[in-house]
Amino acid sequence: MTASSEPPLPYEFVEPLVTERLRLRLQTAADVDDIYAWKSDPDVALYQLYEPLSREEVITRVAEAAVSARLENSGDWIELAIELTAERRVIGSIYFTLAQDSGAEIGWALTAAYHGRGYASEAASAVLELAFGRLERHRVYAELDPRNAASIALCERLGMRHEAHLVENMWFKGAWADTGVYAILAREWGSGEAGDRLTAAD
């Protein structure tokens, strides 16, 4: 992990993040069909804050994400398309937003057919590298539904610790729901220990 000599913020996301199998880039109108495939899927939406979306709702959200590229203040966000290079299709998205006190939040969603192949780990690792390198963030956290075993396992493989379990702290889809909080610090990511936990499973 190396920080740029440029000031960390403001940061304009322009160039894709490229990994062995993926390109993480801004969404475009051409991605609507691929993104609709999972944002309309009840199984994928089960632990997300949204209900399954209509195609028209996806078009609106993609348009918003396509122009949200500047990170400067707390609350600024990007939601990157996870493009599988070999198939030239979008299989998921990864969300990143600035938080106070040099923090940031990360989140992800993946088309069900591509679960279990390590794509979420690969994408999240690239975003964490950006967060702790170029953006010089101190801490990155994820908030998730404690029933979401796959996301919990991913957090653990990324080296994120379980910091909190908030009991019935939010009204979620017609019922009170808990929230789990996982986090990792820059010095922990840079130690190499977190990367050693990554495996080829989501």
Would you kindly provide a written description of the structure presented here, covering whatever features stand out?
The chain is α+β, with helices and mostly antiparallel strands and 202 residues long. It has a single domain, classed as Aminopeptidase (3-Layer(aba) Sandwich), CATH 3.40.630.30. Helices cover 28% and strands 33% of the residues. It has seven helices and ten strands. It has helices at residues 32-39, 42-45, 55-67, 119-132, 149-157, 186-190, 193-196, and strands at 11-12, 17-18, 22-26, 70-71, 77-84, 89-99, 103-110, 139-144, 161-172, 175-185. An eight-stranded mixed β-sheet has the order 2-3-5-6-7-8-10-9, with helices on both faces. β5 (77-84) and β6 form a beta hairpin. It is globular and about 45 Å long. Mean pLDDT is 92; it is low at 193-202.
**C-alpha-based Rg, rounded:** 16 Å
Which CATH architecture? 3-Layer(aba) Sandwich
Biggest β-sheet: strands ordered side by side in the sheet? 2-3-5-6-7-8-10-9
Question: Could you give the order of the helices and strands?
Answer: EEEHHHEEEEHEHEEHH
Share of residues in helices: 25-40%
Counting DSSP E segments of at least 2 residues, the number of strands comes to 10
Beta strand %: 25-35%
What does the overall shape look like?
A: globular
Question: What's the helix count?
Answer: 7
